[in-house]
Amino acid sequence: MTSIVEYPTLYTIWIMLSWSCEGGHYSIFPPLSGLVYGPKLGIKINALFFVAFGIASLLGVLLNATVVPMLGWEFMFITLGVMTCGAFVMNLFFKTDKEDKFEFIPALSPYLNPKGKNVE
Questions:
Q1: Is the separation of the CB atoms in 113 and 102 below 8 Å?
Q2: Does any domain span residue 85?
Q3: How far lies 92's CA from each of 16, 87, 95, 98, 110, in Å?
Q4: CB 47 within 8 A of CB 55
Q5: Is the Cβ–Cβ distance between 86 and 72 less than 8 Å?
Q6: Which domain holds residue 49?
Q7: In the chain, what's the furthest Cα-to-Cα distance?
Q8: Do the domain assignments include residue 21?
Q9: Residue 110, number of CB atoms within 10 A of its CB
Q10: Exposed, middle or buried by CB within 10 Å (0-12, 13-18, 19+), for 72?
Q11: Torsion 97-99-101-103 (CA) sign
Q12: Residues 42/33, Cβ–Cβ less than 8 Å
């Protein structure tokens, strides 16, 4: 990773591509939580998600100030990489029990409901 810093244009492209992936959870998580947990519980899970995001940001600063000086960036990279791979593997086996996936989004139902039933 240190070699990419030597090329300013490549580094700029690298940062732009990595930042383009940030923030996707803000648009994906609310409908996904409603899909998985239902409309009533999904709203509560979504609220907990935003609280957890703030706590995780503060925890990240604390870990950066304490763990990185002791164990180094390579340890953090490997640990976070393993956690990311674990989340990917768990996603492969994740299933929902919802029969009608778009029932909780009335505005999208006519366009996305495969059964074509009116859910108003």
A1: yes
A2: yes
A3: 28, 9, 9, 17, 28
A4: no
A5: no
A6: 28-112
A7: 59
A8: no
A9: 13
A10: exposed
A11: negative
A12: yes
Please give the Cα distance from 9 to 4 (Å, whole number). 9
Q: pTM higher than 0.70 for the full model?
A: no
The per-residue pLDDT string of the chain (120 residues; one tens digit each, 9 = 90 and over) reads 567 778 888 888 888 888 777 777 777 788 888 877 878 888 888 888 888 888 988 998 898 899 889 998 889 889 889 998 998 898 888 776 655 554 545 554 555 555 555 444
Two structure tokens written together for 106: 């009335």
- Number of domains observed in the structure of the chain: 1
Tokens matching residue 79: 């640990």
The encoded tokens of residue 87 equal: 């989340």
For position 27, what pLDDT does the model report? 78
